[in-house]
DNA sequence: CTGTTAGCGCCTTCAG
DNA sequence: CTGAAGGCGCTAACAG
């Protein structure tokens, strides 16, 4: 595990691909005929004679010197790197977060070290522990299931961390959360308002935290609206993706005739749209569909998908903010931010009346 | 630009968030009552007495010591980091590449430093130059337009680079390319084979390399099939995205009645699907549609989208391979790999006959 | 087999 | 205002 050392260090190290030797502070000093300390000072903008400044600048320019980031980090105790870890680097929701983090960090010249922890919880743990080697100044971790072990590992880290996800109460870690159960409720209420009664749920696996929370949110909202949750109208997809959503929708339609389908995320919803269309069912006239996450895809669907935004970008932005605050001040008390879900209505759930109005 | 030094280095540096001082080699040596060199050796698996091994291991364990990655890098001259730069971190094609690179690099315990260069070519250049500070051992750069300036900057780098994209002939850089013009030809031929004659093109901006190449490929393929390219049947979207694709398709359908639409990428195609459906046109019975890139989205479309795969994953995989080869051997001659486009047929372009067969 | 020592490249006290 | 020297944490020579 740690025998990764540079045993086979190559002779060519320290030369550009073109063969020029990589300039160092000492080289610049030699060329300028001054001490390394002076070069360092000039290059860092500390006071110096115009003459000195000139000579150093010219020498540095001539050698096209650039300070070595690693040496500087070793010395400064800061790496100017931030780790960003998501479960799945290909999931649109996490892509949106990555994008936001990247944009927020760009002007700060912090680099982003990217990790994909995978769906197994061991991946997360291994990743967090690997950070003990001190490659980053801070960490943003999107997690679907925060075990105690993970929280302990985070506490052991020498650098601050912010978790995007739901933590057990009293966890001693900065976090940004949202309540997707509430979000599902928004969708249910909207559909009920539109006159839909036979509302089905296409959920993800209930052994995941999001799956559990969304199911609960669905049942509560249905109860609150006086709708009954018929057995068989709640299907569990093998995973939160398009294909499994398609399969679950197909199975659902085999046995039942819902007039609305609430999906646990946009990918599942896209599968549902497809399954419905294949059966000649019109959306939303025959069946309304809602997704969740408000990914880019939702607006691109055919028809465009009503969905519940969980503020992925906003959460990512808040995470960056919390992290920066804490990097500045390690002593700041633990903070948690919550983003409230909101409904984004598009074609896939407009009422028939509204639909008529448009034509 | 370089006054990023650790002026405000904090006192808390070197302690975990829990307050424990961060263990160092010297600490372990002290606790074990041996020299730092011995600790280093034991931890790196070099020969040692069982007794020595035991004492060191125990001490390291007790302090839960982890070597500092930066110090090790400084010493070894290797960073165990690879930079991955794409134009747009949110574009599904680049997401697929990122995912592949991540998967390929994970077992090597190389870390990925992620950059989004943006669409402006200056972003790319600035990014490449920033790497001169030596933060990575190698670089994979997806580029849409490789200027000479960029190639020069790459040549100046002290570490190897692999470009994903089309380079001018004779460029002295490893690269992985594909010919999207050929890919468009595949789509045109397929549609013509299906009996479509009035084939339109929804292109991206022609001032981009992909836009230019795809237009050219379209015209050539049409000519080869004896189809005429009617003026007005080639539309240029403002950008390679869904919304602009929708607008362009709408404009196209206002004036013309194509029986097939070739789109410059999957996002544009999704916009086209939507515009067609809104007008009550059936896909593929009335109008066939093809996309390009074979992104995840293509299979999730409604209906599923016929598209041309440019082997994004394969290209990314090859790029990793080339980079690793060159990190092993800086002297290896410049290599280029080419991935040939292939057609992926789905519902959006099946012939009416085929369609009948299914029902 | 183990300990001592000399740097990797940089910044920052301390004298001059 | 400038130069010399020490050390960040680690590894690879060299001695013992």
Polypeptide structure, described:
The structure is a homodimer of 359-residue chains. Chain A has 359 residues and is an alpha/beta fold. Chain A has helices at 25-32, 36-43, 50-63, 69-76, 92-105, 121-130, 148-156, 180-193, 209-224, 242-255, 266-278, 296-300, 312-328, 352-358; strands at residues 81-86, 111-116, 138-142, 161-164, 174-178, 199-203, 234-236, 260-263, 288-292, 306-309, 336-339, 342-344. In chain A, helix 8 runs parallel beside helix 9 (209-224). Residues 1-14 and 354-359 of chain A have low confidence and may be disordered. Chains A and B meet through helix 4, helix 5, strand 2, helix 7 and helix 11 of A and helix 4, helix 5, strand 2, helix 7 and helix 11 of B. Strand 2 of chain A pairs antiparallel with strand 2 of chain B, so a sheet runs across the interface. Chain A binds a DNA duplex (16 and 16 nucleotides) through helix 2 and helix 4.
């Amino acid at each position: 595990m740690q025998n990764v050392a540079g045993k086979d260090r190559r002779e060519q190290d320290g030369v550009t691909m073109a063969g020029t030797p990589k300039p160092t502070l000492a080289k610049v000093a030699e060329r300028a005929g001054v001490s390394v300390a002076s070069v360092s000072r000039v290059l860092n903008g500390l006071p110096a004679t115009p003459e000195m400044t000139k000579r150093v600048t010219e020498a540095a320019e001539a050698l096209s010197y650039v300070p070595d980031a690693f040496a500087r980090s070793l010395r400064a105790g800061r790496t100017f790197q931030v780790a960003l870890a998501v479960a799945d680097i290909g999931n649109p929701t996490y892509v949106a977060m990555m994008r936001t983090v990247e944009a927020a960090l760009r002007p700060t010249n912090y680099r982003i070290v990217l990790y994909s922890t995978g769906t197994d919880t061991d991946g997360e743990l291994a990743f967090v522990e690997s950070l003990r080697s001190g490659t980053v100044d801070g960490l943003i971790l999107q997690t679907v299931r925060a075990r105690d072990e993970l929280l302990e590992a985070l506490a052991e880290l020498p650098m601050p961390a912010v978790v995007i996800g739901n933590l057990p109460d009293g966890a001693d870690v900065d976090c940004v959360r949202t309540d997707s159960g509430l979000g599902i409720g928004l969708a249910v209420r909207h559909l009920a308002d539109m006159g839909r009664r036979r509302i089905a749920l296409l959920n993800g696996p209930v052994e995941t935290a999001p799956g559990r929370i969304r199911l609960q949110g669905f049942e509560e909202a249905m109860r609150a609206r006086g709708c009954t949750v018929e057995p068989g109208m709640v299907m569990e997809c093998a995973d939160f993706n398009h294909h499994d959503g398609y399969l679950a929708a197909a199975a659902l339609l085999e046995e039942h005739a819902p007039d609305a389908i609430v999906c646990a995320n946009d990918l599942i919803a896209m599968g549902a749209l497809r399954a419905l269309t294949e059966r000649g069912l019109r959306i939303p006239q025959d069946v309304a569909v809602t997704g969740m996450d408000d990914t880019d895809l939702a607006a691109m669907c055919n028809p465009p998908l009503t969905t519940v935004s969980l503020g992925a970008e906003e959460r990512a932005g808040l995470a960056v903010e919390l992290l920066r605050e804490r990097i500045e001040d390690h002593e700041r008390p633990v903070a948690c931010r919550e983003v409230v879900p909101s409904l984004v209505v598009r074609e896939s759930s407009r009422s028939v009346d509204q639909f008529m109005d448009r034509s």
